[in-house]
């Protein structure tokens, strides 16, 4: 491509809210065959709501929600905000947390009111040796709806199961169809539960899912797609997505996402409508043309 065509393409991108941070991304996008996307906050609205609490053993709902929200008040995860918001809406006072620890992509632990709390994905609690047999069915029915199951154990005993729902953006399904109409393969990459991710993918017409991965796992997934000879674009919004944005042939960050994501991406999308991804690729194909 000539410097002039890059300049024209970059200008047109800016007009449609697609900001190319340098000419490389505009050029590389032309050859992209696979678009991999983060789920939470990218394909979904990213503002999860607590939709249900199942209390186990002889725990009281307000008591468990208080403990859970106290722990989550120390986390910046979108799931944490859903739990804290629900507790505040019920007027619950949140006690202090000691020995707080956040395990990225897994959950939280800490000591509240003399109790040892563990909170997070079923996998995280299972690995911590919590017996989850009695909640398997409840977890399965949440994940089948595309909700995220968050478990709480108090003193090593399962105490409650929270259902947290983060609906897809209204435009996401059409945006995925748009990408496919350009001949692109679409893949979801997420740290969320495998069955939750599959349910959301089905709603969006996405046929390939890589789930339950830690942030390094997102990078590994991008590298695997690249190792198959594909040119890969990755779309994400979170701090967790920064390494994958940098590892892709082209990283596209949602402009309303985190600064870290934007700094790691070659392209910043000013709207959170994922049609912008298809527009960016179509623009690259039109400006760069078929001959370099
Ligand atoms: P995503 O890729 O969807 O943004 P993350 O890697 O941030 O997901 O988190 C993966 C999983 O780890 C979540 O679905 C949840 O089960 C668990 N998890 C992470 N942080 C928390 C938290 N603060 N509270 C409860 N669960 C959490
Ligand atoms: Mg995200």
Automatic annotation (TrEMBL):
<protein>
    <recommendedName>
        <fullName>P-type Cu(+) transporter</fullName>
    </recommendedName>
</protein>
<comment type="similarity">
    <text>Belongs to the cation transport ATPase (P-type) (TC 3.A.3) family. Type IB subfamily.</text>
</comment>
């Amino acid at each position: 491509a000539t410097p002039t065509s890059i300049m024209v393409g970059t200008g047109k991108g800016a007009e449609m809210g697609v900001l190319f941070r340098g000419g490389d991304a505009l050029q590389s996008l032309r050859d992209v065959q696979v678009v991999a996307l983060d789920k939470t906050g990218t394909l979904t609205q990213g503002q999860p709501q607590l939709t249900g609490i199942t209390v186990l053993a002889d725990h009281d709902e307000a008591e468990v929600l208080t403990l859970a929200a106290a722990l989550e008040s120390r986390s910046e995860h979108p799931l944490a905000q859903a739990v804290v918001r629900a507790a505040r809406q019920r007027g619950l006072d949140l006690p202090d947390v000691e020995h707080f620890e956040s395990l990225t992509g897994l959950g939280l632990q800490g000591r509240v009111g003399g109790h040892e709390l563990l909170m997070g994905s079923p996998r995280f609690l299972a690995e911590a040796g919590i017996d989850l047999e009695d909640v398997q069915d409840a977890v399965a029915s949440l994940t089948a709806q595309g909700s995220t199951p968050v478990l709480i154990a108090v003193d090593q005993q399962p105490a409650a199961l929270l259902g947290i729902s983060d609906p897809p953006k209204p435009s996401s399904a059409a945006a995925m169809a748009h990408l496919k109409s350009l001949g692109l393969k679409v893949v979801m990459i997420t740290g969320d539960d495998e069955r939750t991710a599959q349910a959301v993918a089905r709603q969006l017409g996405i046929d390939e899912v890589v789930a339950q991965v830690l942030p390094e796992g997102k990078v590994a997934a991008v590298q695997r797609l690249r190792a198959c000879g594909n040119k890969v674009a990755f779309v994400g919004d979170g701090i967790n997505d920064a390494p994958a944005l940098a590892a892709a042939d082209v990283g596209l960050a949602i402009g309303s996402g985190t600064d870290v994501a934007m700094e790691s991406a070659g392209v910043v999308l000013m709207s959170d409508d994922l049609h912008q991804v298809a527009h960016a690729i179509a623009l690259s194909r039109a400006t760069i043309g078929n001959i370099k």
